[in-house]
Amino acid sequence: MSNSTTDDSLITTEVQTDSNDGREAPAAGTAVAARDLDVFYGDEQAIDDVTMEIPEKRVTALIGPSGCGKSTFLRCINRMNDMIEICRVEGDVEFGGKNVYDPDVDPVALRRKIGMVFQKPNPFPKSIRDNVAYGLKIQDFDGDVDQRVEESLKGAALWDEVKDQLDSSGLELSGGQQQRLCIARAIAPDPEVILMDEPTSALDPVAASKIEDLIDDLAEEYTVIIVTHNMQQAARISDRTAVFLTGGELVEYDDTAKIFEDPEEQRVEDYITGKFG
Amino acid sequence: MATENPNADGFGEVSRVRGIAFEYLSFGASVFGLVALGVLLVYVAIDAFDLANASPEWLLTYFLTLVVPFIVFCLYSANDRDVTRRALVALGGGLVAVAVLFSAIEALLVPIPRLNWQLAYLFVVAAPVTAYLAYVGSGGRVGAVGFGLLGRLVGGAALGLAVGTLFLVFDSLVWFLAYTLGVLPAVGLYAFGRVRESPRARTAATPVGLVGLTAAVFLRDVIATYPSDLIIYLWTIAVPVAAAGALLVADRRGRVAAAAVGGVPLAAATAGGFLAAGAGLPAPTVLLAIALTGVPTAVYVSRVVDGGEGLAGLGLPLLLAAGAIAGALIVEALGVPAPNPWLDASFLSEAPSRTPSEAGLYPAIVGSVIIIAMVAVLSFALGVGTSVFLEEYTPGTGPLGTLTRILQVNIANLAAVPSVVYGLLGLGLFANLLGLGIGTAVTAALTLSLLILPITIISAQEAIRSVPDDLRRGSDAMGATRWQTTKNVVLPEAMPGILTGTILALGRAIGETAPLIMIGAATTVFRAPDSLFSRFSAMPMQIYTWAGFPQADFRYGVVAAGVITLLIILVGMNGTAILLRNRAERGS
C-alpha cells in the first residue's frame, strides 16, 4: 500500500516539475486557483492571503491543525460559504478560467459543476436510486437516468453491494457504504472537481481504506481536493499537499513526497512530525 | 487501615422522598383525569344508546353472538396460551368482582344511577379486555388480515360518504369538465412520458392540465347539457379508482386478476347507484361509497390471497355481520325487550325536529364535514407556506431578520388569542368587509382556518427546524436551488411532523363553537347546505342548542347521541390522518 503510493507521488513529481512555488501552471493544467484570498467570519480572519493553484485530475490534500481554515478554503471553491451569513470573502478563486466570486456567477450553477462530499455521510432519506439520481433530477437531466445511476455507483465502488436493493432507503446502508453513496451522488452529474471535507473521519479504518482506494481511482477522471486531519492519509493518497497553519496561512504547498520527506519550513516539519498542532 | 475507612458503614443514603412523592402525585393526577373522562364517556354512551333500558338478556345475547366470537378470533390469531389464560381469568374474575363490588356499593353506600352491574361489567371489564385482545390479535397474521380488511371496508365507506357530502356543495359540473379536460389529459400525458421515457411529455403534463382546468371554469356556463350526477361520478371517480386498483394488481397477478379487482367493484357500484336511484336513496353517494369500499377491499383481498398467509382473517367481517344478524334474530325470537337508542340511522340522516324522537343531525354533520375539509386544505397550505418562508427563506440577521423575529413572536402570541376574538375578526373581515355573508360555510371555514393557523405554523416550523442541516447542505452542494432543496429534501422529511401538528389543530377546529356563534352561524338548519354560501350549522352548534332545550329527552338523549357522533367523526378523521402520516413516515 505505502509502496504504491510512494510510486504514485514519484510519478507526479516528475510531471509537475517547477511547481514548487505553486504559481506557475503545472503540466497537468490548473483546475482551481486562488489568488490573494482572504476570508473573514465577522472580524475574525479565517484565511490569510492564500494563493495556490490546484492541478486538474490530481488529488490535492489540504492538511493542518483544527481551525486553520482548510475547510473554509474548500467551501470557498463552490461558494458554500455564502450560506454562512457572517462570512466575507476577498480575493479571487478561479475555476474554469473565471473568478467564481464575480458578480455574474450564479453560485447554484457553479455548484452543479463541483461535487462535494462531507465529513459525516449525509444521504437523503430516499431510495439509493433517488439519492444517486438527485443531481440529475434537479438539473432536469434528459438522458437515461438508470444507466447514469449504475455508472456512478460503479464509479463509487458500490454497485456490487447495492445493485439488488436500489429501491431500499439509503439510510439502511452502513456508514462506509453511505459515504460511498454520497460520492456516487456527487459524481452522477459528472462534475469537474470533487471537494471532500474529511470524508473518512467518521468511518472505521476498513471503510476508510475503501474510500481511499476509491479516491485514487477518482483522480483519473476528476480533480479531487480533500481536507484531512490524517497525515498518513494525505501521504498515501495525494499528489500535492498544502499545509495550512493557525490563522489561515498557507505555509507550504508542494508535491506530497517533498512535504513529507523534506519540507522547506521548520513549522511544517514540526507539524508533520507531531511536535506541534 | 480498613477501620479508618470513612465508608466502612456503606456510603450513606441520599433521600429520594421528593422524587417519589412527585412521581406518585403525577401518576395519581393523570389517572384521576382519565377516570373522570372515562366515566363521563360511559354515561354519554349509556344515554346515547339507551343502554339503561337494555335488559340483561339483551346484553347477554349480543355478548354471546358478537363479542365472544370476536374475542375467540383474536385469541386464535394471537395463538398464545398465556394470553388465552389471562383473558379468561380477566373476563371470569372480572365478572365476579364487578358483580360483588357493584352490589355491595349499591346496598351499603349509594345507589348508582342508570347503571347496573351488567353494564358496569361491559364497560369496566369486557370493553378493555376486548380492546387489549384486539391489539394482541392484530399482531398475528390472521388478525392483521382481518383488521386490515375491516379497516378498508369501514374506511372506504366513510370516505365515500365524505366525498359524496362534499359534492353537495361543490359544483359537480365544474368538476366533470375539470376532470375531463384537465386532470385526465395531464395524468395521461405524464404516464405516457414515464412509460416511453419522454421527458417532453412529462413537462407538458402540467401546462396541459392548467389549460384544461381554466377551460373548465370558462366552459361551465357555455355548455348547456350535462350527463346526470350519477354518470359524472361514475366517470370521474369510480372508473379512475377502479383503474388504479387494477393497475396495482396487474404488476404481480396478471390481467385477469386485475380485470376482476377493478371490474367487480365497479360493476357493483354502478348497479348500486342505479338501484339506489330507484329506491329514492342519494344515488351518487351510494355509488361513491361502494366504489371506494370495493376497490381497496378487492386489492387487499387479492394481495392477501397472493401472499397466502392469514387467509382465515378474511372471514372477520363475515363473522361480525353474522353475529349481529344472529343476535337480532334471537332477540326477535325470544321477544327480549330491546333498548331504543337515540343514536340510530334516522338520527344521522334526518333533519332536526321539535320532537326528541325525530331529531336528527344530518344537516349539521354535512356542515361540519364541509367546513373541516376546507379548513384542512386552507390551514395546511397556508401553514406550510408560512413556515417554509419563515424557516428557509428569511435571513437570521439584518432588518429582515428583525422583522422575522417580530413575526415569530406575534405568531406565537396569536395562538393564545381567545377564539371569540377570532370570531369577531371573521365577522368583520370575511362576513362584512369581503362580503362572504354572515353565517355562511365559507366564512366559517376561513375564520376557523385563521384560528388554527398559528398552531399549524408553529408545529410546522418545529418540524422543519428538526430536519438536519446536513441534508440541506448536501442538497445545496449538489447545486439545488433553495426551492429544490425545500421541495425535495426538507418538506418530505418534515412532513410527518407537519401532519401531526395539522391533525391536532383540526381536532380543535372541528369542536369550536364560540367563533361560529360570533360569525352568525345558524343554531339549527333543516336542510343540508347546498353551496358554499348557504346558511349552515355545525355539530357543536347543534349540540349546544339542544342542550338548552327544556325537554329532558333532548338534554339527555339527543345531546348524548350528538356528542358520540361528533367524537366518532373526530376519531375517525384523526385516525385516517394518523394512518396517512405513518405511511408517509415509513415511505421516507
UniProtKB/TrEMBL annotation, chain A:
What organism, scientifically named, is this protein from? Halorubrum distributum JCM 9100
What residue stretches are annotated with the ABC transporter domain?
A: 32-272
What NCBIfam families does the record tag this protein with?
3a0107s01c2 (TIGR00972)
Q: Which Pfam families match?
A: ABC_tran
Report keywords, A-Z: ATP-binding, Cell membrane, Membrane, Nucleotide-binding, Transport
Keyword Signal among record annotations: no
Q: Does the keyword Cell membrane apply?
A: yes
Enumerate the PANTHER family for this protein: ABC TRANSPORTER I FAMILY MEMBER 17
List the biased-composition ranges (Polar residues). 1-19
- Top-level taxon in the UniProt lineage: Archaea
What does UniProt give as the signal peptide span?
Answer: none
The name under which this protein is listed is Phosphate ABC transporter ATP-binding protein
From TrEMBL, chain B:
Can you tell me which family this protein belongs to? Belongs to the binding-protein-dependent transport system permease family. CysTW subfamily.
Instruction: Name its cellular compartments.
Output: Cell membrane
Q: Which SUPFAM superfamilies match?
A: MetI-like
Q: Which GO terms describe its cellular component?
A: plasma membrane
**Keywords per UniProt:** Cell membrane, Membrane, Transmembrane, Transmembrane helix, Transport
Identify its membrane topology class: Multi-pass membrane protein
Molecular function (GO) terms for this protein are: phosphate transmembrane transporter activity
Q: PROSITE patterns annotated for this entry? A: ABC_TM1
Annotated ABC transmembrane type-1 domain residues: 365-577
The keyword Transmembrane appears for this protein? yes
Q: Does the keyword Transport apply?
A: yes
Which Gene Ontology terms describe the biological processes this protein takes part in?
phosphate ion transmembrane transport
Q: What name does UniProt use for this protein?
A: Phosphate transport system permease protein PstA
What are the TM regions of this chain, as residue ranges? 24-46, 58-76, 88-112, 118-137, 149-167, 173-192, 204-224, 230-249, 256-277, 283-302, 314-339, 359-390, 411-430, 436-458, 556-580
